[in-house]
Prior knowledge:
single chain; 704 residues; mainly alpha; two-stranded antiparallel ribbon; 2% strand
Amino acid sequence: MTLPSNRSFFTALIQYTQNKNLQKGKTLHAQIIKSDSSSCVYIANSLVNLYAKCQRLREAKFVFERIHNKDVVSWNCIINGYSQHGLSGSSHVMELFQRMRAENTAPNAHTFAGIFAAASILVDVSGGRLAHAVAMKMDCCRDVFVGSSLINMYCKTGLIGEARKVFDTMPERNSVSWATIISGYASQRLAAEALGLFGLMRREGEGDNEFVFTSVLSGLTVPQLVNNGKQIHGIAIKNGLLSIVSVGNALVTMYSKCGSLDDALQTFETSSDKNSITWSAMITGFAQSGDSHKALKLFSSMHRSGIRPSEFTFVGVLNACSDLGAAWEGMQVHDYFLKLGFESQLYIMTALVDAYAKCGSIADAKKGFDYLKEPDIVLWTSMIGGYVQNGENEEALSLYGRMEMEGMFPNELTMASVLKACSSLAALEQGRQIHARTVKYGFSLEVPIGSALSTMYAKCGCLEDGTLVFRRMPVRDVVSWNAMISGLSQNGCGKEALELFEEMRLEGTRPDYVTFVNILSACSHMGLVERGWGYFKMMSDEFGIDARVEHYACMVDILSRAGKLKEAIEFTESATIDHGKCLWRIILGACRNYHSYELGAYAGEKLMELGSQESSAYVLLSGIYSALGRWEDVERVRRMMKLRGVSKEPGCSWIELKSGVHVFVVKDQMHPQIRDIQAELRRLSKQMKDEGYELTTDSFSAAL
């Protein structure tokens, strides 16, 4: 009588497991206990499998531990259950495998498939190698499923060479084996090897399927490989695979990453069955290629189509908002993903912090950062970089200190941002400390660390250290060259800056617009008018770089410093770009220095016509009219300044003392040692008066 009852229980358990019907499974479990059938190993194994497949590992483990005569199926059910439960479950698999061997139960192919799956999730190389050795000893590696799982484990742990050895020695391969090894090469950015295997697979007559196609397409990520992608696209069409959504999505992603947006858009538009991944791939493609307006427009179309966005969609859209500085759109996206319950997604919150920071909303960025209790290094780096980008360098250094106290290990981008903060503050000692930390953490002088270090030393006036770092960099990109040329130029070494530019050209590094700003600035400081004109023309004639406002400003400065004020005015009036007010402001200052008051009045009135909001422009023009004795114009300029609400910005300075940066702002009473500072100022003021000096400004009284 027992056997039919057990058979019916067994049949019902299989059905409930397939449907993942936990409620009916629990009811049946109670009936099994009541009928005393739980001692049957087949029934007990089925119960373990039911709970494991329903993600109830605690109940699965409870049933498993009460099986008195566990067989290999018992162990397989619990091991595979844990391995399919992600990182938290996989951590128990190796312990179970050791127990299984200690209890003298011989593993089989299904056991090893679960163990290798867990090792790949845990990136556990040593545990995976141990299981591999046992599998070889038991001659289980000949099984195609074990071999495929083993390939996946080695690929996920970055040991692509070991994966290839396993693949090459497999007596039998299936589509999963091919897809796994091709995907492994693709994930390591070894596109040539992935393409080679794809060709080999087709020559061996292995049937094409969507998994192989998506795997090989994922490895094509640079423009040089777009033609290979088009060939695979043609094969997919020939084999009728374009109707499969995953293949269409892989093609859209491939074309986007290869910079062929027209092909990506055509593939997207001809796709008959678009899902969230399809939309996300196209939106991300637009955002990463600089077509951020199109990315936002497509996101609106997705919303109107009724497709629910995923976390990847939101990351792409927020990146588009970052590039555009679109704060209002970023806020709308923020509200939308809060409504959908994505506020705890780390990737989205990181993109949100980055978007707010790049839009200048640093307070909102900080709120997003503080919302997550355990930020990862990417989020820390985004927040530190946001502070630096918005000029809040002291906050950036403070946050970095907090990050270190919490034991978070920085990456290269973190250190580059912190070094940039030190550069902006001219905080040499702190910069040296950060340099020491980059050595401690094992970061090399590759870009971006090398560029950031040479920039920091140059901006702090330590050209010798900056040059030493620059020369030790194994590879120098245009940013590295620009940093060193700028440092030399700004520290009075214009000749060396121009020599370095020529060295840069000889090494074959193509200059960009920043390079020419730096060398034109060097020409300005050295009074090299003709050479400046030569570089200005070289920029467009030789390198095809269109002159920007910065280049025009440098040329005006070159002419103005050399006293060629009329030429500077003619050059400004002939400029073909919208330069706003900056060129006239340079000329105005030069006219004051050269006492060319009539030309200064002309430049100043141009600034007034353009509605300048710089207080210094009004002060300079007022001073010029005073020198000319045109008192009515003096009064008119002052009235205009008041009418336009222009006020003089308070002065700010800082010093570095005992590894701390002290910031001083006019009329600021917030410094912790303000009483001592005021007392010292009063003492100095009295000493100056006693020695016959007369104070010419009200700076002391403002500070006192």
